[in-house]
Write a structure and sequence with these properties.
Belongs to the DNA photolyase class-1 family. With about 200 residues, the chain is an all-alpha fold. The protein has a single domain (about 1-190), classed as DNA Cyclobutane Dipyrimidine Photolyase, subunit A, domain 3. It contains 8 helices and 2 strands; from the N terminus they run H-H-H-H-H-H-H-E-E-H. A two-stranded parallel ribbon has the order 1-2. The longest helix is centred in the C-terminal third of the chain and has 16 residues, at about 175-190.
Length: about 200
């Protein structure tokens, strides 16, 4: 489960250094600044289980937006999931990072309001956001200052707040995903010719 099924992706350029380590540690701890991802990672650590939809959001955040090596995520999930299966876990992470055999163009947003439309899941696992109005639960950074103040929420990246700020390059999710896709395309270009349709299916 440590080798991509498409060998060209062994050459993929992942985010590295202190920045990658900081993002990875925040993801493991459920302190990314994205409430749905944080809820998923906290539930995983507490219970050993998370539903498929939020697993996909947590995985997409790490590999499809942060561009962190899928093997880091696979190892963490395998260590914590009570229903973990080495083969399934490895392939699902490869699919999330575009080096597997699934649809090239598919991703899941780390905000993914459809996975928790009422915000109840986030409020359960991210209690520091519990007092926020429902419309701001998934994206607290968009809440007006007075709403945050009344809810007792201070978003900060210096450790002094009640909830972590998003990493600066993740303020623009589209641009972040494009950077990760560019790295995947670069690796993919080194592969032997193969038949693919416009959506990336083999």
């Amino acid at each position: 489960s440590q080798l991509p099924i498409r060998s060209a992706y062994l050459n993929q350029r992942w985010l590295g250094g202190d920045e990658a380590q900081e993002l990875l540690e925040g993801w493991r701890a459920g302190c990314t600044g994205f409430p749905l991802v944080d809820a998923a990672m906290r539930e995983l650590k507490a219970s050993g289980y998370i539903s498929q939809s939020v697993r996909m959001s947590a995985a997409a955040y790490l590999v499809d937006y942060c561009n962190i090596d899928w093997r880091e995520g696979a190892r963490h999930f395998h260590d914590y999931l009570v229903d973990g299966d080495l083969a399934i876990n490895g392939m699902m992470w490869q699919n999330a990072s575009k080096c597997g055999i699934d649809q090239w163009s598919f991703t899941v947003s780390p905000i993914a309001k459809a996975s928790d439309p009422t915000g109840e899941y986030i409020r359960r696992w991210v209690p520091e956001l519990r007092a926020l109005p429902k419309q701001h639960t998934h994206e607290p950074w968009n809440a007006p200052a007075d709403v945050l103040r009344r809810a007792g929420v201070v978003i900060s990246d210096d450790g002094e707040g009640t909830y972590p700020a998003r990493h600066p390059f993740l303020h623009d999710l589209h641009a972040a995903r494009e950077r990760a896709l560019a790295a995947a395309r670069e690796a993919r270009a080194t592969a032997p010719p193969r038949e693919e349709d416009a959506n990336g299916y083999d």
